[in-house]
From TrEMBL:
Cupin type-2 domain mapped to chain residues: 47-115
Keywords: Metal-binding
Protein name per Swiss-Prot or TrEMBL: Cupin type-2 domain-containing protein
Keyword Coiled coil part of the UniProt annotation: no
InterPro entries registered for this protein in UniProt: Cupin_2 (IPR013096), GPI/OXD (IPR051610), RmlC-like_jellyroll (IPR014710), RmlC_Cupin_sf (IPR011051)
């Protein structure tokens, strides 16, 4: 829990990441460490990277999800539609809609993901 001095929070509640896990060839994911929080939020999250030329596996699940692209550029395959996706863009996936990412750029892509049960 953060301490407060004159209404200003001290020691912000930084989230740490679990060690990286391979998602597929050329992509890794690190999930947020939320279990240690005194009060669990209603969401989970991660960051993941995709190397140039690599693709993430197709994902489809019962949760809603948002991706925030921090670095790089590529193509998003979203329920069979392919669209360009680049740093600074944010996309939303409804539950059970398939999605995957192909890095078509020359540098790694870094994406932050937040998901929750609607």
């Amino acid at each position: 829990m953060s301490s407060h001095t004159d209404g200003v929070p001290q020691d912000p509640p930084y989230l740490r990441f679990h060690p990286a896990e391979a998602m597929g060839h050329g992509s890794v994911v690190n999930e947020f460490m939320l279990a240690a929080l005194a009060e669990r939020p209603g969401f989970s999250g991660s960051r993941f990277s995709v190397e140039p030329g690599a693709r993430t596996p197709v994902d489809r699940h019962a949760v809603a999800e948002i991706w925030m692209v921090a670095e790089g550029a590529g193509e998003l395959d979203y329920d069979g539609r392919v669209v360009a996706l680049a740093a600074g863009q944010v996309v939303h996936f409804a539950p059970f809609e398939s999605h995957s990412l192909h890095n078509t750029g020359a540098t790694p892509m870094m994406v932050f993901s937040i998901w929750w049960q609607p």
